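User: Thanks for the earlier help. One more: DUF4412 domain-containing protein. Can you show the sequence and predicted structure together?

Assistant: Of course, both are below.
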Amino acid sequence: MFFRSMVAVGLLVFSHLAFSGTWYDPKLPFKEAVVTYQVQGTMSGTKTVFVREYGRKSAEYSDLSMSVFGMKQQQKEIVITEPEWIYTFDMVNHSAVKTSNPTKIFKQELDKYTAEEQAKIAENAGKNGVYLLKGMQGKVQKDILTLHGYRCDMTSATGVKVFTISGTGFPLKTISQIMGVTSVEEAVEVRQENPPDERFEKPQGIEVDYDPAIDQMMRDQIKRTLKNLLLGVPLESKARHEQEMLSAERKALHN
């Protein structure tokens, strides 16, 4: 259930970026920053995101706990994003994985198209942002409010609202209520300062696993997405399928 709510949030962010025209490599309005979040609801705790190079590099530290059927589950993760790789460290189970940064793959695959084709892909990406939102019964409201001095857009769909810094996919507030999982993640402080170097260092003593097959699956998906965007094929079906899955699971819970 929690996974599906995160998929819904992910689809919202993608559709918003597509709609705004910065769909695969958005640039943040600050070069360096430390953003602290408070998470409340079914999952609660804190999260801090350290940003460098306008978002090309980041380190996310989360310390959360979730109560499921009266059982408390702890989640402590460190996610380090670099231009080439994304490293995810599970500090509870002392395990880690790395995957290629999707932005890198998008750029590699996009560079295979001509300038004219790239322009068509960008144009259709904006249209597909609308298709995705319609498929999730959602919408975008641009420049709707100010959070921590930054104008924000609101992207919403059934059970989820995401407030992102205008023109980017960087969330300052996320409200979700899906399948009985309620969560409010909100930035409580945004400081424009150079984060400490040690925050970007990978934890010692944890072996990092890498599965090339996962990267290949991601590359294949990106290839299909770019091809469909070039042809003008709507991506609505993916969003609609996800919405149908959420609706089916919600009905099952109430039976």
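User: Great, one quick takeaway?

Assistant: Residues 1-21, 236-255 have pLDDT under 50 and may be disordered.
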